[in-house]
Design brief:
Helices cover about 45% and strands about 15% of the residues. The protein has about 325 residues and is an alpha/beta fold. It has a single domain, classed as TIM Barrel (Alpha-Beta Barrel), CATH 3.20.20. The longest helix is centred in the first third of the chain and has 21 residues. It is globular, with a radius of gyration of 20 Å. Bound molecules: manganese (II) ion.
């Protein structure tokens, strides 16, 4: 079985609410209990979390000790900008300079604590940096402010990595930087060694991106610092168990991560409303490893050869062979 570095988000281990069942479909869990639940699943070696909501000024030292005791690395540590109603019209791109400064200050404070937590990456998710209506934002200024604040955040501590996680909608009707192409344009403009991308495969799917292609654009510039794994029906960010809907795209992504020599973490960004979260994490890890088992049923050189002959018939045969057919 393939050894993968797998980290687990703690935000979906407690009560998970939707628009209709606001209290969530199960009782909530304390943050230490979520750490212990994640660590209890075989194959989880790291944790992902937010500041100052899940992790606070009061608890971060204790939580780092708990993570150490559990043998868990802190993989993603993220400023939780989008849950504060004051940023409802924008975080880094808010037209109010005081609010933009407050967003940057929170990102810097997150960086200080991320250093203590020995976190691998901090995520910038634009979330509220977007719009709901035509004519609602100044698109020229929004990009100025976005680049200015992201560069300032990266320069605050060049030892700490910042990654953009793109998504096209939700919570805003449209969010800035919706695709890998938008991200790479801004990442290459800002051009800092500690600034890269987190590809969330579900976010790529809702924009009908093919993961192999998104991974290529990002890896070409050495900017794929992190990945988030889940699945969906390409209509909404369902955050389902990996590989259950889009199996072939997922397998091609796993193949190409090997080809590019990706040595980062496989972050699990799931959102089970009704299922037991530990079982969903376990299933996802098993599916990721099984994905590599399926790929290993076919010689890699044969797959590579198909990419030069364009032989779709042979490709179909190899795909059937992966599934155990003849
Ligand atoms: Mn994600």
């Amino acid at each position: 079985m393939r050894d993968l570095k797998v980290s687990c988000g703690i935000w979906f281990l407690g009560a998970t609410s939707d628009r209709f069942v606001k209290q969530g479909y199960r009782p909530d869990l304390s943050i230490p209990d979520r750490f212990m639940l994640a660590a209890s699943v075989e194959g989880v070696g790291g944790l992902e979390m937010h500041y100052p909501t899940e992790v606070t000024d009061a608890n971060y030292r204790d939580l780092k000790s708990l993570a150490n005791d559990l043998g868990m690395e802190i993989v993603q540590f993220c400023p939780h900008l989008w849950v504060d109603p004051k940023f409802k019209f924008g975080q880094f791109t808010n037209s109010d300079p005081k609010l933009r400064q407050q967003a940057l200050d929170l990102a810097k404070r997150t960086t200080d604590i991320a250093q203590h937590m020995e976190a691998h990456v901090m995520v910038y998710w634009p979330a509220q940096d977007g719009y709901d209506y035509p004519f609602q934002i100044d698109h020229r200024k929004a990009l100025d402010w976005l680049v200015e604040n992201l560069a300032a955040w990266c320069d605050y501590n060049p030892q700490q990595k910042v990654v953009v996680e793109y998504k096209a909608w939700e919570p805003r009707s449209r969010i800035l930087l919706p695709t890998i192409g938008h991200c790479m344009t801004i990442v290459n403009e800002i051009n800092r060694p500690n600034f890269g991308v987190n590809i969330d495969m579900g976010h790529a799917f809702i924009m009908k991106e093919n993961l192999a292609e998104s991974i290529a654009l990002c890896s070409r510039y050495g900017k794929l610092f992190h990945t988030h794994w889940n699945d969906n029906w390409k209509l909404f960010d369902d955050d389902l168990i990996v590989g259950t809907v889009n199996l072939w795209e997922t397998l091609e992504a796993l193949f190409w991560l090997d080809e590019w020599g990706y040595d980062g973490w496989f972050g699990l960004d799931l959102f089970p409303y009704r299922e037991d979260p530990a079982q969903v994490v376990n299933e996802t890890i098993r599916n990721l490893k099984f994905g590599y088992e399926l790929l290993d049923r076919v010689p890699r050189d044969e797959l590579r050869a198909c990419m030069h002959s364009y032989d779709a018939i042979r490709i179909s045969q190899l795909m059937r062979q992966m599934l155990g057919g003849s």
